[in-house]
Amino acid sequence: MPKHLNSPINLALCLLIGINKMTGQHFKQYDPLTETLVKRHIWLTEKQAAEFLNVSPSFLAKNRCYAKAEDIIPYAKLSPKCIRYNYYQLQSWLDAQIQAFKSEELS
Fold first, then answer.
1. Which domains are present in the chain?
2. How would you class 5 by CB atoms within 10 Å of its CB: exposed for 0-12, middle for 13-18, buried for 19 or more?
3. Is the pTM of this model over 0.85?
4. Coil vs helix vs strand at 57
5. What is the pLDDT of residues 14-37, one digit of tens each?
6. DSSP 42
7. Rounded CA gap, 66 and 68, in Å?
């Protein structure tokens, strides 16, 4: 098994986003009307998002309740017990946290 598929969450993400096993490239989807590339939404459960961010599910729950507006990890609440996190938004949020951390180190 390839090294990047060792963890169950990585394997699940690869299956969800359609990574081609032979080339490692993403399958591309195009809107038939506009012929533009479509970015697929990948929704993670709270447990999957916590594993992706390397935090506990309770951290995510506390973040939803108590974090300041600019610090909230983006999520979708489909029902009181059904919380989902968009993979691409999590990736963007994580990148922003890394940039903010680097800025603090420099000052």
1. 1-40 (no CATH), 41-107 (1.10.1660)
2. middle
3. no
4. helix
5. 555 544 443 444 556 666 677 676
6. -
7. 7
